[in-house]
Amino acid sequence: MAEEKVKVTIDGISVEVAPGTTIMNAARQIGGDIVPPAMCYYSTLEGSGGKCRTCLVKVSKGSEKDPRPMPKLVASCRTGVMDGMEVQNITSEEVVEARRGVVEFLLINHPLDCPICDQAGECHLQDLSYEHGLENTRYDFERRTFDKIDIGDKIKLHMTRCILCYRCVMVADQITDNRVHGVLGRGDAAEISTYISQAVDNDFSGNMIDVCPVGALTDQTFRFKNRVWFTKPVEAHRDCPTCSGKVTLWYKGEEVLRVTGRKDEFGEVKDFICNECRFDKKATSDWVIEGPRKVKNTSVISANHYEQMVPEPVIKKNLTLQEGNMKQLQRSEKLK
Ligand code: SF4
Ligand code: FES
User: Ligand 2 centre and the CA of 76: distance in Å?
Assistant: First the structure.
C-alpha cells in the first residue's frame, strides 16, 4: 500500500511529505531559498533543535481541518506538518523581523573577530549576520568574556563565540562512548565546559568541531594555518576500520592542511569520522582521491573554485518568492 502523505505549502510552494515530518524537513525537500536557517538543529543528532530560534516561521493556516493560523511564530525544526498547512518563511515580514531580532540576541556576546576566526567563510552565524544583522549593537552592558581553553589536545574552545546550541554535547552523547563535557550553569552563567578539567579525547570527539555552527570549537591542527577560501576542498576516502573513512581534504598546494567530515547542502555531516582520519592522516598517500568537492556558489569557499553545488535557486522560478524578496529589498532600503 502506498504510504499516506500530507500536503504542506511553504512560501507558495507545495510539497507532499510523510506524516510526522517537521516544517524544516519539508522545506528542505523543496530546497533553495525557502529553507529556514538552522543554528542548532542537526538532522543526524537525535533531539537537536529548539534552542536557537533562527528557524522561526509563520503558520498562516494550521491544516485543512482546522485552518486557523497559529497564534505565534513557531520553530520549524520542532513543529510537525499537518495536511493542508500553509507556512510562510521569507515571504513573511513578521518572520524576517523576528529573525533579525534573534540574530541580534545571538550576537550580544559574540565577539566580532571574524577576521581572525578559523570558522570565517564557513560560519552559519556569519552568514546570518550578513543577511539579517544590524550594523551597530544596541547592547550597553558588559559582554561575557572567557579565556580560551584546550578541551583535549586537539580541540580549542573559545567560549565567547559559543551560541549554546548543544550540538557538541549531543555528538559527545550520541557518537562517542564517554561524554566529559557539557553545558554548566544556566541563563547568563551557562557555558560549555569539561568536568573537573577532564580532557575530551574520545575517538570521535573531533566531530564536535564539525557540528559547531560557529568558531567556538576549532581544530588545533588547523588553527591559523590558512583562510578557508584559500584552500581547495577535495573528496577522498580510505579503508578505515573505525569509521566510514569518507572525508573532505582541504589542500593548500600539495599539503593537506585539514581533514573534515563531508558536509551536505545544509551544512551537516552525514558520515561522522574518527579522530585518526581527522587528525593523523594528513598525507595524500593515506587517501584515495575522488575529485574536487562541489561548493555552493554562495559560499566564499567557491571563489576561484570548481563547480557549483546547488541547482538554480527556487526563488528564480517562484512568483510569490520573487515578490517576497522584492519587499525585503525595499525594507532594507528604508533601514539605510
Ligand atoms: S561549542 Fe559550538 S557546538 Fe558546542 S554548544 Fe557552543 S556553539 Fe554549539
Ligand atoms: S534550528 Fe530550530 S530552534 Fe534552532
Answer: 7
How high is the pLDDT of residue 101? Answer: 94
The CATH number of the domain holding residue 49 is 3.10.20.740
- SS3 state at 109: coil
Q: Hey, what amino acid is at 173?
A: D
What is the residue range of 80's domain?
6-104
Provide the percentage of residues in the chain whose pLDDT is more than 70. Answer: 87
Same domain, 63 and 89: yes
Q: What's the CATH number where 167 sits?
A: 3.30.70.20
pTM value is 0.84
Domain termination residue (choose one: 224, 243, 268): 224
Distance (Å, rounded) from C-alpha 243 to C-alpha 107?
36
Q: How far is the CA of 52 from the centre of ligand 2 (A)?
A: 5
Looking at 201, 224, 247, the residue that finishes a domain is 224
**Ligand 2 atom at minimum distance from 165 CA:** 4
Considering only CA atoms, which of 60, 10, 56 is closest in space to residue 31?
10
**Quick check: 140 and 108 in contact, CB under 8 A?**
no
**Is residue 240 located within the same domain as residue 217?**
no
For residues 144 and 185, state if they share a domain.
yes
The pLDDT of residue 320: 64
Expressed in angstroms and rounded, the spacing between residue 212 Cα and the centre of ligand 1 is 5
Q: How many CA atoms lie within 13 A of 324 on its CB side?
A: 22
Is 192 close to ligand 1, i.e. is its CB under 6 Å away?
A: yes
pLDDT average, residue stretch 225-253: 93
Return d(Cα 67, Cα 158) in angstroms, integer: 46
Atom of ligand 2 nearest to the CA of 41: 1
293 close to ligand 1 (CB < 6 Angstrom): no
Number of domains within the chain: 3
pLDDT of 25-61, one tens digit each?
999 999 988 999 999 999 999 999 999 999 999 999 9
